[in-house]
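debug: dumping io for the single-chain case to check the tokenizer round-trip. Nothing else runs in this session.
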Amino acid sequence: MLLFRRSPTVIPYHLFQRSYASSTRIPNVMTDLTNRGLIANTTSPDLVEHTNTPTAIYCGVDPTASSLHLGNLLTLMGLFHFHIRGHQTIALVGGATGSIGDPSGRNSERLPLEREVLDKNVAGIDQQIHRFFHHGALYAQRRGYDHVQLKPKVLNNYTWFSNMTALDFLGSVGRYARINTMLAKESVRSRLESTQGISFTEFSYQLLQAYDFWYLYNHHGCRIQLGGSDQWGNITAGIDMIGKRNPMDQESPKAYGITIPLLLTSTGEKFGKSAGNAVWLDKSMTSVFDFYQFFMKTTDHDVGKYLSMFTLFNDGEIQDLLQQHKKNPELRLAQESLASEVTELVHGLDAVQQAKVATKVLFGQDLSNVSGQDILNAFEHDHSRFASLEQDKVVGVGIDQLATMIKATKSKSEAQKLIKAGGMYINNVRVMDSRQKISSGDLIDNTICLLRVGKSSYHIVHVRSSKSP
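debug: decoded output
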């Protein structure tokens, strides 16, 4: 197996110019991904030539949660760049492999998921991937990619594994695997050296993923597998299986592998739910505001890299933006552009406006030009900050009681102490009297009031008509 290593070049660019006037000016996908720092390794230098014409590529994700997270987004960006250039993209949800769990990059075995939970996660991720490519196609078209026509395929490997018996697996998969090769995989070797070791179930995971590639190669014309850099061993196992079951002669097209760098925090940690710092792509799990703010908080050191990886800005656009940013870094122009672009890509154009309204609300800015409906749209999926109450439970009620009701404080006495200390606000105006009650005049457009506790604990109260269901 030829290992072709590239040194990714991260090239910054800018928000205000749009250079992709037509699809003929869009660079080869492999060249572009390399320049954006989205290539860790490939199995062959022939990929550049191979991708000059339409091909099919897949990436798999195991449904270990009901939502994808920011770590998955980087891999989805790889698929997305193929998608907007007219290649057939396949997102494979691991309804079968998810019941086992990939040992790659893990020190211990995953706890098995019950089938009911697994099926729920599969359904959630399936819908999420469709939404991502829907929003992504609109995002790309607004930036000059006018030939986004092919629909991505979203498949589930449970489809072909569910009826496979143990004898079928040994005969059609195990027969083509070599134990010495499997033992040499980094994901296996590192676990063998640990005190816990590795179970036979996890040891077999690479064979299931290898069979996925073989199945997609033969039934969907898929020639490329893309994954995170921790998937190198699993990807090459699939290429080996294709080579053994489909001898590579002049009639059998080659199979290829691409790995994407893992997204790490500034301290070198992997982004993901197991690290406890997941930024979810489901807005009910990570609000649009928090998603947007994650990118707003990007350091100046990383913002150029993230603009390359997570947006469609070209070289000159990023360079222009970074130059403007350096003139007034306190304005955070680069971060605002990054946050807006990625939020639009993942959640749609309306979500950008929602995130900006939420930012205005939660940073204590003047609310005179913000409507109640805008605030409602911005926070209705933000379960940690949003509460909906009937009008008779809000209007005429003491602020101390309201704070307790929506769990902004643990008790009325705690709320009263905060008010006396100057730490309670209604619509960003400090409450001066611990006996103050909510009046209809405190409601923005008769529907919304904002309660802030301390410097940054905001609660958005949606006030419904008492007759509403």
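debug: round-trip ok. The chain has a mean pLDDT of 87.
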